[in-house]
Amino acid sequence: MLLLKANSSKWMTGQGKGFAWQEGYGAFSVSSSNLDQVSRYIQNQQAHHRKASFEDEFRALLGKHGVEYDAKYVFG
After folding, report:
1. How far apart are CA 49 and CA 11, in angstroms?
2. What DSSP element (H or E) covers 14?
3. Is the pLDDT of residue 76 over 80?
């Protein structure tokens, strides 16, 4: 993850974009059978997050998949 973050930050800076990673991160895999659904979600993400915040959706995703977490480390 360190290498990915370093290289992507360097690339974004080279593109003249202001960019910074947050302190933590989360990673989830996607089944190939769900690629179309995930692609549609990404394309409509801006409209989707008018209804539900990213933070609320992320917490719901953690709960749906039984991922235990300490709330003080998720979005402060």
Report:
1. 27
2. helix 2-14
3. no
